[in-house]
């Protein structure tokens, strides 16, 4: 199956959804290459970067679920090449 390498950038403005977000990321853990989280205490937000190697539909599904969480913004950037 073709996979894509992508980076998902997540900004969490509502700390009440962090547990639900972590559960979602755990569900997609097989596709996550790495994760970095930065608490920005001065602004009371969290910034999370997720590196993925997954089929396009899996990446889109995760981004959609994350984006539907209240107080969460998500953007995804894809590498130009597909992995076979």
Provide keyphrases for this structure.
4-stranded antiparallel β-sheet; alpha+beta; about 50% strand; about 25% helix; elongated; about 80 residues; 4 strands; Alpha-Beta Plaits
Please, could you describe this protein's structure?
This protein has a four-stranded antiparallel beta sheet, with helices on one face. It has a single domain, classed as 2-Layer Sandwich (Alpha-Beta Plaits). By secondary structure, it is α+β, with helices and mostly antiparallel strands. The longest helix is centred in the C-terminal third of the chain and has 12 residues, at 56-67. The mean pLDDT is 94. The protein has helices spanning 18-27, 56-67, and strands at 3-12, 32-40, 45-54, 72-83. It is built from two helices and four strands; from the N terminus they run βαββαβ.
DSSP strand content? over 45%
Number of spatially distinct domains: 1
State the CATH class: Alpha Beta
Give the tally of β-strands.
4
How are the strands of the largest sheet arranged? 2-3-1-4
Poorly predicted spans: none
Fraction of helical residues: 25-40%
What name is given to the CATH topology? Answer: Alpha-Beta Plaits
Q: Superfamily at the CATH H level?
A: ACT-like. Chain A, domain 2
Terminal residue distance: 6 Å
Tell me the Rg in angstroms.
Answer: 13 Å
What pattern of helices and strands is seen along the backbone? EHEEHE
**Count of discrete alpha- or pi-helical segments spanning 4 or more residues:** 2
The averaged pLDDT comes out at 94
- Form type: elongated
CATH architecture: 2-Layer Sandwich
Main beta-sheet annotation: 4 strands, antiparallel
Oligomer: single chain
Content-based structural category:
alpha+beta
